[in-house]
Amino acid sequence: MNQNRMIIGLAVAILVGLLFSSYIYRQFQRATNVKAITMQHIVVAAAPLQLGTRIDTNNLRLISWPADEPVTGMFTRVEDCANRALITPVAANELILENKLAPREAGAGLPATIPEGMRALSVAVNEVVGVAGFVIPGTMVDVLVTGRLPGTTHGGDDNITRTILENVRVLAAGQKVEQDREGKPQTVPVITLLVSPGDAGKLAMASTEGKIQLALRNTIDSKRVDPPAVLEAVLFAGPAPAPKRMGPAKSPVLPPPLYIIEVISGNKRENKSFPTP
Predict the structure, then answer these.
(1) How buried is residue 104: exposed, middle or buried, by Cβ count under 10 Å (0-12/13-18/19+)?
(2) Are 143 and 207 in contact (CB under 8 A)?
(3) CATH number for position 95
(4) Same domain, 179 and 204
(5) Residue 270: how many CA atoms within 13 Å on its side-chain side?
(6) 113-140 residue pLDDT tens
(7) Same domain for 131 and 85?
(8) pLDDT tens digit string along 10-52?
(9) How far is 134 from 137, CA to CA, in rounded Å?
(10) Alpha helices in the chain (DSSP H)
(11) What pLDDT, on a 0 to 100 scale, did the predictor assign at position 196?
């Protein structure tokens, strides 16, 4: 009886050992079948870089990146993107991509940030026109102009204000092409706007022949509104003043009737008037 129990126990132990060894073997096979991750180098910014900066080996570096996870437009060699200007600011360790760089022949600075087919035009501003200094690089504005209707003279009421441009990007404030990191206003005498060639003509005429005003927009609000023009004559006309109310007419005060007496003195007669008692 004891011998049978020993045989059964030995058989169970052998079976458990076989199952455990089989499990270990499968795990080992799975671990050895995992492919090693292949790495490659990609180009990133070595430090924060401003818009218009010409990049080179001094402000770029290489980091490791999985070869099977490519990013569209990335560079694997520094020399492939060196001597090109940034058309957008980048942060430290941010990937340098093709769509963030101007063509090699575009140079550096502000000209390199102007897309093909567009123009940069500067207009004189003051603290009011520049929305208290909050019109800074990267913001979006509408351009309003106030002037006289053709054929009118100074001093008339035919002044008109209309919106000539909507959702225009500010490229530079003064000579700065970067926003203040804390969003502080910048009081400058000149604002540079990014416009099409046709809009450049409108803006030049407006700033020369009229008074321009910038209206600051939310940067995510790109909807075109096309507001109607405002005429001075209509704006200040308003309703006609109501006539003054007159009180009830007063009856004229009549003098009291006179009492007439005929006075005879000898052969002389005369009528004398006396107030009615």
Answers:
(1) exposed
(2) no
(3) 3.90.1210
(4) yes
(5) 5
(6) 788 889 999 998 887 777 878 888 888 9
(7) no
(8) 666 676 666 767 777 677 667 665 566 788 999 999 999 888 8
(9) 9
(10) 2-33, 197-209, 232-235
(11) 93
SS3 category, 3: helix
What's at 37, amino acid-wise? I
C-alpha dist (Å) from residue 22 to 16, 30, 204, 268: 10, 12, 84, 169
Is the Cβ–Cβ distance between 162 and 232 less than 8 Å? no
Exposure b/e, 134-162, CB count within 10 A at least 16 = b:
ebbbbbbbbbbbebbeeeeeeeeeebbbe
Residue count of the chain: 277
Q: Which long-range contacts (CB under 8 A, 24 or more apart) does 155-159 make?
A: 157/232, 157/233, 157/236, 158/231, 158/232, 158/233, 159/231, 159/232
Domain residues for the domain of 135 are: 119-235
Q: How far is 33 from 269, CA to CA, in rounded Å? A: 158
| Residue labelled with tokens 């049978």 | 4
- Cβ neighbours around 167 below 10 Å, total: 14
Give me the long-range contacts of 179-182 (CB less than 8 A, separation at least 24): 179/136, 179/137, 179/138, 180/136
For residue 71, which amino acid is it?
Answer: V
Do 134 and 194 lie in one domain? The reply is yes
Beta bridge partners of 263: 270
